[in-house]
Specification:
GO terms for molecular function: alpha-galactosidase activity; galactinol-sucrose galactosyltransferase activity. Pfam families: Raffinose_syn (PF05691). This is Glycoside hydrolase superfamily. The protein has 17 helices and 52 strands. By secondary structure, it is an alpha+beta fold. The strands form eleven sheets. Strands 1, 2, 3, 4, 5, 7, 8, 9 and 10 form a nine-stranded mixed β-sheet that branches. Strands 32-31-30-29-26-23-22-33 form an eight-stranded parallel β-sheet. The protein has a seven-stranded antiparallel β-sheet with strand order 12-13-21-18-17-15-16. Helix 4 packs parallel to helix 11, helix 10 runs parallel beside helix 11 and helix 13 runs parallel beside helix 14. The longest helix has 23 residues. It is globular, with a radius of gyration of 29 Å. The two termini are 54 Å apart.
Length: 874
């Protein structure tokens, strides 16, 4: 129950601002038993650089704020606490370091936030047109001590406000057929010193994971992407580009040395000497600089890819993929057997699971039969086991795949797609040397290297795989068999295995044919209904996932969901949010993995999946479901199909440089709809291990414009702010989350109408208010003040539920006398229109109940149109 201080700009973080006039806001949470009027707060600040060369520290008192200047409260404090608000305005010319001290009154000692809460100094950078990255500077000015042996050249950036270079690093060809060449050279120190750094490292062969740090780069693993924030607020992004039909066939990654320099580490599998490539961009914000290197990488891939035979075939097959499968495959609720049913699958277990879902009225569209349906040779652990034959394991699946899929579809019409798991090379150790597949197709024996970061996964040793000459036939035969069995999609796992091969000759001859033929077969037989898994390896990213000109595929975005490892749950969401900073630029839809709807972190995972913009798969043990949580993620269309609500812009971390161990909420930014009229979304998650309160500015939401008015709604509390603009104190949102807590904040642009009898009126459609991302249920919304004085609000939705309409003057109005609501042109039962119990300015329209009571039929449409007529002028 100690006093707790939260500020904006925040402590221990770096805040970039455009205006030299900075208002500091502080919220002090104290027990109600302590006298509230005597508390004092002071800002302790210093101008100058962040590296210790500061001017003298100055103390400025913070004044108590009036009620009209309070930040908006989305989450109330605990019952025994009260909140006090303080503010002060300062002029900051370039940079400012600050902290806070507080005391109960003049007769008490000052207490420092650093000592009481463990929060370090905050740092403000005001962008006043610093010269770093300006047109008169070149790469050696930005990377101090740039290695003179490197060849670099500038390029035109496709991202406004950024500059771009490539660096070429010479490297010899592979030493022989069994040994690749590795080159390790220093690059230099970004900016000559920096405030923060962020990287995506190869956590192990199949996965990327985030790392952050402060003034010294300390990479524990090889990094694919790095970013560095300068003391002037500029961002320098480095991307290691994997060779695509250029002189180097391998990968380019980053390390650091004992001198604090970034170093470049290159693997060349080609028999020829060549050069590795590093892409460098600088900009005023991370997203722009990051986009600049990714756009340029895409251009390099496209140029190299156009000449390939596989690319031509992919383009032709892509042209035949119908667009309507996107909704069915992406937007339907999915179920995966992995955590639910475990290993040693049987047809009986699968049927029990889908029957239990139906018994609980959980209508999935996509079923994934995960690992262990295959006929494999059971010797050793799974990492040494190979695949015998296409057909399912005969004892566990006595009627084969065809029998199981046929039974599923005959009993459960809602299941549109049955997909099956398999490894890219067949099984974890490829093909069983003595199995039927080894007799039917030519095979070779290859050597895998150990991954030192995964001692519990013995990858080393030999494995049998299909030879290059038969890869096309193998995949064509296999996927034809699956298609004829009724299977409609695949989850192709263990793709990283191609990156474990030791021989450079094997790597350059087999990696690309495996990836290409898998893609071709998945398009030919399943229309692209494929999930790429364990595939965040550089060569796979740049060869398979970055190029355009083919349907967007689902791709797993991080390491697995581990239901029985409590510490893994917040990290899983953290890793996905940061990995999406890179994967948002790939031609994929990031898949944040399955999860279970029961358990302490079930809602945490559900909210993360909803803001991710990707698919949602559950893996509940049969009979163990949280039906309310499932209902928050999904809705039923007028035709009776269960769908999820995916934001149109993918979710990704908003604070790249904040460390996992920092006392800060994870903020995941997404957006739905068109520019200006769409809905900015922010998922907030407490990964810190203790309760946290933060002040979140409206201006931090993607797509918010200073000239517009908005309301912000909390999914968890149901609270809605007053109408705000980014310049008002009320645009600061006070968010409080317990350990493991979460919320989804949605920002709705307001329409303004000047009326004679009511004055200025604000209105907005809020989407389906019972859903986590119910704003994404809206297909279109509009409003107009008619000549007869009526206000007309129209909303088209993709699913049924409770539609929320914000009306600023609703408490003054009578629903019975001044409203009329129609669905599909018909008036709805009056009792289905009520005032929201959490906010008296929100009108709730229970479309789902009205639809059933009215006996409406979807007809040719799969949408529902709701019209609200409101009389203002008498």
């Amino acid at each position: 129950m100690s006093p707790f201080v939260v500020t904006y700009p925040p402590l221990e973080q770096i805040t970039q601002l455009k205006d030299t006039s900075v208002t500091f806001h502080a919220v002090l949470e104290v027990p109600k038993t302590l006298a509230p009027d005597s508390w004092q707060l002071a800002l302790w600040h210093s101008t100058g650089s962040y590296d210790g060369h500061k001017a003298s520290w100055v103390e400025t008192p913070l004044a108590p704020s009036g009620q009209s200047d309070f930040p908006s409260t989305l989450h109330n404090p605990a019952d025994q606490l009260t909140r006090l608000h303080f503010a002060v305005n300062l002029t900051v010319q370039s940079t400012l370091t600050f902290t806070i001290k507080f005391r109960q009154g003049p007769d008490h000692d000052w207490r420092w936030v650093r000592n009481e809460q463990g929060l370090g100094d905050g740092y403000i950078v005001v962008d006043v047109g610093a010269p770093e990255g300006s047109d008169d500077e070149d790469l050696p000015d930005l990377i101090h001590g740039l290695n003179p042996s490197l060849k670099w050249s500038p390029h035109l950036s496709q991202c406004p406000g950024t500059r771009l270079w490539t660096i070429e690093v010479p490297v010899d060809g592979a030493r022989d057929d069994d040994n690749s060449t590795f080159t390790h050279v220093p690059l230099g120190i970004p900016w000559g010193g920096f405030l923060r750094w962020f990287a995506l490292v190869r956590d192990w062969s199949p996965w990327l994971a985030p790392r952050q740090g402060r003034s010294t780069v300390e990479l524990d693993k090889d990094a694919l992407l790095c970013s560095f924030l300068s003391s002037k607020g500029k961002h320098l992004v480095l991307l290691g580009f994997a060779g695509i039909n250029n002189a180097v066939d391998g990968m380019t990654l980053f390390r650091n040395d004992e001198f604090g320099r970034v170093t470049i580490h290159i693997r060349n599998d080609s028999a020829k000497a060549g050069s590795g490539t590093v892409l460098v961009a600088v900009g005023d914000n991370f997203e722009s600089a990051n986009a600049a290197v990714m756009y340029h990488a895409r251009g390099l891939v496209s140029t190299a890819d156009r000449a390939g035979e596989s690319s031509t075939k992919l383009e032709k097959l892509s042209d035949n993929v119908e667009a309507n499968w996107y909704e069915n495959w992406y937007d339907g609720l999915g179920y995966c057997t992995w955590n639910a049913l475990g290993q040693r699958l049987t047809a009986e277990k699968v049927m029990t699971a889908v029957d239990a879902l139906a018994d609980n009225n959980i209508n999935i569209s996509n079923l994934i039969i995960d690992d262990n349906w295959q006929d494999i040779d059971y010797h050793g652990d799974q990492w040494q086991q190979g695949w015998n034959d296409f057909e399912a394991e005969p004892k566990a699946f006595p009627d084969g795949l065809t029998g199981l899929v046929s039974e599923i579809r005959s009993k459960h019409k809602n299941i549109e797609h049955v997909a099956v798991w398999h490894a890219l090379l067949g099984y974890w150790a490829g093909i069983a040397p003595d199995g039927n597949l080894a007799k039917r197709y030519r095979t070779i024996e290859v050597v895998r290297g150990e991954d030192s970061s995964r001692k519990n996964i013995p990858l080393g040793g030999k494995m049998t795989v299909i030879a290059k000459e038969d890869i096309h036939k193998f995949y064509d035969d296999f996927y034809r068999f699956l298609s004829e069995s009724g299977v409609a999609g695949v989850k192709t796992d263990a793709q990283f295995m191609v990156d474990t091969w030791v021989s450079p000759k094997v790597r350059r001859e087999l990696i690309q044919p495996y990836l290409d033929n898998w893609l071709l077969a998945s398009l030919r037989y399943f229309g692209g209904r494929a999930i790429s898994c364990m595939s965040l390896s550089p060569q796979i990213i740049f060869h398979t996932q970055l190029p355009r000109g083919r349907p967007t595929m689902l791709c797993r975005n991080s390491d697995d969901f581990f239901p029985d490892v409590p510490s893994s749950h917040p990290w899983h969401v953290w890793a996905n949010a940061h990995n999406s900073l890179l994967t948002q630029h790939l031609n994929i839809l990031p898949d944040w993995d399955m999860f279970q709807t029961t358990g302490a972190y079930a809602g945490f995972h559900a909210a993360a999946r909803c803001v991710s913009g990707g698919p949602i798969y559950i893996t509940d043990v049969p009979g163990q479901y949280d039906l309310d949580l499932i209902k928050q993620m999904t809705g039923v269309t007028p035709r009776g199909r269960t769908v999820i609500f995916r934001p149109s812009v993918l979710g990704r971390s908003l604070d790249q440089y904040v460390n996992y161990d920092d006392l800060s909420l994870l903020k995941i930014s997404a957006y739905n709809g068109r520019a200006v009229t769409g809905t900015p979304i922010m998922g907030i998650f407490n990964v810190s291990g203790r309760p946290l309160t933060e002040l979140v500015p409206l201006a931090r939401f993607s797509g918010v414009l200073p000239s517009m008015w908005y309301v912000v709604r909390s999914h968890q509390s149901g609270k809605v702010t007053v109408p705000v603009q980014t310049t008002s104190s009320a645009s600061l949102l006070t968010a409080s989350l317990d350990n493991g807590g979460y919320d989804i904040l949605s920002v709705f642009p307001l329409s303004l109408y000047e009326t004679e009898s009511r004055g200025r009126v604000y209105v907005a459609s809020l989407g389906l208010v019972g859903k986590m991302t119910g704003c994404a249920a809206m297909l279109n919304h509009s409003s107009d003040l008619l000549e007869n004085g009526r206000l007309f609000i129209s909303t088209r939705l993709k699913a049924l539920g409770v539609l929320g309409i914000y009306i600023s003057h609703l408490p003054e109005l009578s629903i019975q006398d001044e409203f009329m609501v129609t669905i599909q042109g018909q008036p709805i039962p009056p009792h289905t229109v009520t005032v929201n119990r959490m906010d008296s300015h929100v009108l709730d329209i229970d479309i789902e109940s009205a639809w059933k009571e009215m006996g409406l039929d979807a007809g040719w449409s799969n949408e529902v149109e709701v019209k609200v007529y409101l009389t203002f002028e008498k």
